From TrEMBL, chain A:
Annotated source species: Gracilibacillus caseinilyticus
Alphabetized PANTHER family for the sequence: TRIOKINASE/FMN CYCLASE (PTHR28629), TRIOKINASE_FMN CYCLASE (PTHR28629:SF4)
Alphabetical list of SUPFAM superfamilies matching this protein: DhaL-like
Taxonomy, superkingdom: Bacteria
Gene3D superfamilies assigned: 1.25.40.340
Name of protein: Dihydroxyacetone kinase subunit L
Domain DhaL stretches: 6-199
GO terms for MF: kinase activity
Pfam families for the chain: Dak2 (PF02734)
Keywords: Kinase, Transferase
Automatic annotation (TrEMBL), chain B:
Entry GO MF terms: phosphoenolpyruvate-glycerone phosphotransferase activity
Entry-linked NCBIfam families: dhaK1
Keywords associated with the record: Kinase, Transferase
Enzyme class: transferase
Domain DhaK: 7-328
Gene that encodes it: dhaK
A Pfam match: Dak1
Lineage of source species: Bacteria, Bacillati, Bacillota, Bacilli, Bacillales
The protein's Enzyme Commission number: 2.7.1.121
Protein name, as recorded: Dihydroxyacetone kinase subunit DhaK
Length: 205, 329
């Protein structure tokens, strides 16, 4: 099993740690092409997730993810709340009643991707967090993953590729050509989510 | 950052608390929410009207709650749209059984959160309709982008939809009136200085003394173009020119709004109004009514927006109807 209840809880804690540590970077990215609150919102949202998880008993990975989804939706606001809330809710639904191996983690990320697409009306290459989730789903569809750091390299490459793209969705799209040359803040926060995931998967059981 | 604050994470909470204390004769806060509603909501036989968005746009949105305008306003964190559960609470509190109209500004986050709230309300058996305001002409209106932003013109949508709802018109009629305003309203803004979101503590962008941002939204974000600072008249020419090029206003009657972004003195707003009035007169466009002041701000950003609403009989009478909303009396 690559994710247990304990590891999923740890995943949320690791995400929160990264959002706190990179709050200023995410906010600075958002100031360049958005409205400058992404880091603040993500740190606050995952802080609420950790607070919620700490006071609750969980029986399955799906339950932890559902709890995170509801908290993110209710506490973040903006575009990030519904997008990340929907992503985690779709993962929870996909993993209902299952233990988590690479195969169904891939299915769960696929479902999350569909959810982000539906909620955000997004397509590949529009310089949004969708691009990062797409590459992760694609990566998990390959052979058995031994080195989860490779997944992060794929994410990093995607973020670099999208840097020069013109944003056509979300608030960055209002800047039109001026959105080029900047990293999408949502892509970056998604990177931290998967960096946290790789960390907990590679932890000793 | 130099602001009159207690705790940066309590700004919205404390603002709402103060707001309802100041206006307790007609407004109240829905307990444990960031929702401000009319004291008499839900009004029997009347469609409920809910709007909202991030905080930092004061007097929007709570300032427009009152008889003849909104039944409830939902406040999010600063420049962050409110969450679906909060919007849902507002919908439930104002529904008298006649349904609820949501007035949403076209920002990705607002649209998504209000959409989710509408889905949740419908699951509880409440009829909900939505309109999306997109009056900002500075943004290219293309099917490949998120579309135009909703800015100060939203206030006119609140006013007209609110006035029609007050006559106990059915939901579809109120929605149609709101959509009619959206079709006829155009805005564009400019920033001379950025603003500072309390939680971040840093200005949203930097501008040299002799620069300005043309085509801003209402979230302290940069505009579409950075240009050298110009005179008030020239800025008014540019903004109004873009608005007039975007919609057919010839020989029409209009309502004008010169909206300050939070740190522009009335003196400057009236200097702008003067030029706008002159230009419209030259073009044979009649000003039926005007609003000069702060209606949809971006914290302490310096700058302003111009809004032009083309009038027809229904819009005119709805604009003239009385309201006791704090910010639009």
């Amino acid at each position: 099993m690559i994710l247990t209840v304990e590891k999923t809880i740890q995943w949320m804690r690791e995400i929160h740690k990264r959002m706190e540590a990179n709050k200023e970077q995410l906010t600075a990215l958002d100031q360049a092409i958005g409205d400058g609150d992404h880091g603040i919102n993500m740190a606050r949202g995952f802080g609420e997730v950790v607070a919620k998880i700490d006071g609750t008993e969980y029986e399955s990975v799906a339950d932890v993810l559902k709890s995170a989804a509801m908290t993110l939706t209710a506490k973040i606001g903006g575009a990030s709340g519904p997008l990340y809330g929907t992503a985690f809710l779709k993962m929870a639904t996909a993993l209902q009643g299952q233990e988590v191996d690479q195969q169904n983690l891939k299915s769960a990320i696929d479902q999350a991707l569909e959810g982000i697409k539906m909620r955000g009306n997004a397509e590949l290459g529009e310089k949004t967090l969708y691009d990062v989730w797409y590459q992760v789903a694609d990566f998990l569809g390959t052979e058995k993953v031994e080195d989860w750091q490779e997944m992060l390299e794929v994410c990093q490459a995607t973020i670099e590729d999208t840097r020069e793209l013109k944003a056509t969705k979300g608030r960055a799209s209002y800047l039109n050509e001026r959105s080029r040359g900047h990293v999408d803040p949502g892509s970056m926060s998604s990177y931290y989510i998967f960096e946290a995931l790789a960390t907990v998967i590679e932890m000793e059981d | 950052m130099k602001k009159v604050l207690n705790h940066t994470d309590a700004v919205v909470e404390e603002m709402l608390d103060g707001f309802v204390k100041a206006h307790s004769d007609s407004l109240k806060r829905l307990p444990d929410t960031s929702v401000v509603i009319r004291n008499d909501a839900p009004v029997t036989g009347k469609v409920g009207i809910v709007s909202g968005g991030g905080s930092g746009h004061e007097p929007a949105h709570a300032g427009y709650v009152g008889k003849g305008m909104l039944d409830a306003a939902v406040a999010g964190e600063v420049f962050t749209s409110p969450t679906p559960d909060q919007v849902l609470e507002a919908i439930k509190a104002v529904d008298s059984g006649e349904g609820v109209l949501l007035i949403i500004k076209n920002y990705t986050g607002d649209v998504m959160n209000f959409d989710m709230a509408a889905e949740l309300a419908e699951a509880e058996g409440i009829t909900v309709e939505k309109v999306i305001v997109n009056d900002d002409v500075s943004v290219e209106d293309s099917t490949f982008t998120s579309g135009r932003r909703g800015i100060a013109g939203t206030v006119f949508v609140h006013k007209v939809a609110g006035a029609i709802a007050e006559t106990k018109a059915p939901l579809q009629e109120v929605k149609a009136a709101a959509e009619n305003v959206i079709k006829q309203v155009r805005s564009m803004g400019v920033a001379l200085s950025p603003c500072t979101v309390p939680a971040s503590g840093k200005p949203s962008f930097t501008l040299e003394e002799d620069e300005m941002e043309i085509g801003i939204g209402i979230h302290g974000e940069p505009g579409i173009e950075r240009v050298p600072l110009q005179s008030a008249d020239r800025i008014a020419d540019t903004l109004l020119g873009k608005i007039l090029a975007d919609h057919e206003y010839d020989n029409s009657e209009v309502a004008v709004m010169i909206n300050g972004m939070g740190a522009t003195p009335e003196m400057e707003l009236y200097i702008v109004y003067r030029q706008v009035a002159n230009l419209l007169k030259e073009k044979g466009i009649t000003i039926y009514a005007n609003w000069v002041g702060e209606y949809m701000t971006a914290l302490e950003m310096a700058g302003f927006s111009i809004t032009l609403l083309k009038l027809d009989h229904q819009i005119k009478s709805a604009l003239s109807a009385t309201t006791d909303a704090q910010a639009f009396k």
